Amino acid sequence: MAEPPRRIRPRDDPSSWSYYGAAHRYDVHGDPDAEAACERRMDMLVLERREDELKALSMAGDRCAFIALIEILVDENRVDDLRAMAEAGDGRAHATLMELLRNQECAD
Ligand SMILES: [Zn+2]
Fold this sequence. Notes:
The chain has 108 residues and is mostly helical. It has one domain (32-107). It has helices at residues 32-47, 51-59, 63-75, 79-87, 91-107. Helix 4 (79-87) packs antiparallel against helix 5. It binds zinc ion.
């Protein structure tokens, strides 16, 4: 069977980002098979643009799904969507929004 397509994941840069790129900064799955299965699942959801599912998983406490979702928003510079999540009470989205704005300032 052909390997499913993989996405290019952002680099993990803890000095710039709390969550972006940080899906597997530390082990949340407990074993390599679960880790690999999670990566394949998140790649599929992102490549197929299934943002509603990512959002639902994220709200249900799936850290990897949250990170995959905000990676889409950051990569596409969707400040309004990040702000909406932050205003709905998501502190991680708020942190990511602040980091995005700070990184944009540094790039100017
Ligand atoms: Zn994961």
